[in-house]
Design goal:
Layout lengths: L2 E5 L5 E5 L4 H10 L3 E2 L2 E4 L5 H12 L3 E4 L5 E4 L7 E2 L1 H4 L9 H8 L1 E5 L12 H9 L3 E5 L2 E5 L7 E3 L5 H12 L4 E5 L5 H12 L3 E3 L5 E5 L4 E2 L2 E3 L4 H13 L3 E5 L7 H9 L3 E4 L3 E5 L10 E2 L11 H9 L4 E5 L8 H8 L3 E5 L2 E5 L4 E2 L2 E3 L3 H12 L1 E2 L1 E5 L2 H6 L3 H7 L3 E5 L2
Parallel strand pairs: 2-17, 3-15, 4-16, 7-8, 11-12, 20-21, 24-26, 25-27
Antiparallel strand pairs: 1-27, 1-28, 4-6, 5-6, 8-10, 9-10, 12-14, 13-14, 17-19, 18-19, 21-23, 22-23
This protein binds uridine-diphosphate-N-acetylglucosamine (UD1).
Length: about 425
């Protein structure tokens, strides 16, 4: 398994171009299952999770072609299986996103249950309950969700918990259902809006995406379209934090500043000077040490759980004491122990991490068990004396395009060591 070696150094400085959003590209690739006729998706990031999704669709018999710019053309006319096997779903929970589209268009689906993962139990009960409310017969047996239905029927769906992929799965299913479906307490994440925009350009009738009440008037069929995926707000935030915690300066291109409002707010609080334009963000720490910030994660538009670990790295070397409370996932502090091994002064009390910043960390061999935690350890390595070796970086490759090249272009000393 590849490793990354980071030799801590000085401030980062330079420019980075942001890729398309992983968490928008994944549901949009699943949405191609709803289209009669070919569909082209552009600004798709070059990531493992995208390859996994392509493999998943390919195994169903879907025809895919991809060019060197990651334009993916998908044609579902050749589909023959409606099946998502455990061996793929276990590597990427977002595979569950094929359930709604398969059921809505083909009337059947067999999708492995994702099971637990490093950041908590992460059930999919709300996906299943919603589809049942729309008239599907769903049975869980042998670790698989077996679902079948005639044409789905519209329903009023009230989600107990705000779930991003749950909202997306049900929105896709409702797009072809008979009548008007309401999703209440829907996730408001920008990726939900991007998916709704894509579905609408395929001929769907969806209103209210981006609010907590989404109305979907089902249509008989959807057609292929060309769609460009939105920029990745978590990649944007991660590079901003990388520059901030090293006391550096950065220009982020091909992004959308409103997507990262909550993150920019915290970075300003920590001492960053930030300017924004339509598709760029500049951050300058003027060589200074960041100040600690308090963070409380919650669904969008609040502070994203996917940026929590990166801010832990920032607080680890910031001036003062910062408290980070994680409210979305039950067990998302796996990076804390590793940072402690690098000399960070962090104490855990339930779902809150209290961190007293130290001026520098010490390099150490570390390992992470989820995507954002791995990224946070790379950031910690940038401000550690000596070498930090981050093991199991396949997690990073699931969600960050060329992370070592992008960081190296900013002046970081980082190399990939193949195993
Ligand atoms: C998505 C993102 C992930 C992000 C997360 C929260 C994708 C591919 N992944 O994950 O990067 O960290 O949103 O912003 O978009 N829950 C239930 N029952 C369900 C579904 C969810 O109880 O049926 C709970 C979960 O256990 C969790 C909370 O709801 O505590 C939020 O999870 P959810 O929004 O569903 O996360 P994902 O969509 O899996």
């Amino acid at each position: 398994m590849d490793k990354l070696i980071i030799s801590g150094g000085g401030p980062l400085s330079g420019e980075v171009r942001i890729a398309g959003a992983k968490n928008a590209a994944l549901p949009i690739l699943a949405a191609t299952l709803l289209a009669d006729g070919p569909m082209t998706i552009s600004n798709v990031p070059h990531l493992h999770d995208i390859t996994t999704t392509m493999e998943l669709l390919g195994r169903m018999g879907v025809h895919l072609s991809v060019d060197e710019k990651m334009h993916i053309e998908v044609n579902t006319d050749t589909i023959r299986d409606f099946y998502a096997p455990y061996e793929l779903v276990k590597t990427m929970r977002a595979s569950i996103l094929v359930l709604g589209p398969l059921l809505a268009r083909f009337g059947r689906a067999e999708v492995s249950l994702p099971g637990g993962c490093a950041i908590g139990s992460r059930p999919v009960n709300l996906h299943i309950d919603g589809l049942r409310a729309m008239g599907a017969e769903v049975e869980v047996r042998g670790g698989y969700i077996h679902a079948s239905s005639k044409r789905l029927k519209a329903a009023r769906l009230v989600l107990d918990v705000v779930t991003v992929t749950g909202t997306e799965n049900l929105m896709m299913a409702a797009a072809l259902a008979d009548g008007e479906t309401l999703i209440e307490n829907a996730a408001r994440e920008p990726e939900v809006v991007d998916l709704a925009d894509c579905l609408n350009s395929m001929g769907a009738r969806i209103r209210g995406a981006g609010t907590d009440l989404i109305r979907i008037e089902g249509v008989e069929s959807l057609s292929g379209t060309n769609y460009e995926v939105m920029p990745d707000r978590i990649e944007t935030g991660t590079y901003l934090v990388a520059a901030a915690l090293t006391g550096g300066r950065i220009l982020i291109r091909d992004t959308r500043p409103p997507l990262v409002d909550a993150v920019l707010h915290k970075l300003r609080e920590s001492g960053a000077q930030i300017e924004t334009g339509e598709d760029w963000i500049s951050l300058d720490m003027k060589g200074g040490r960041p100040r600690s910030v308090d963070i409380h994660t919650a669904p969008y538009p609040a502070f994203p759980t996917d940026m929590q670990a990166q801010f832990m790295a920032l607080n680890a070397v910031a001036e003062g004491v910062g408290m980070i409370t994680e409210t979305v996932f039950e067990n998302r502090f796996m990076h804390v122990q590793e940072m402690q091994r690098m000399g960070a002064d962090i104490r855990l009390e339930g779902n809150t991490a209290i961190c007293r910043g130290v001026p520098r960390l010490n390099g150490a061999p570390v390992m992470a068990t989820d995507l954002r935690a791995s990224a946070s350890l790379v950031l910690a390595g940038l401000v550690a004396d000596g070498d930090t070796v981050v093991d199991r970086i396949y997690h990073i490759d699931r969600g960050y395009e060329n992370i070592e090249e992008k960081l190296a272009s900013l002046g970081a000393r980082i190399q990939r060591m193949p195993s």
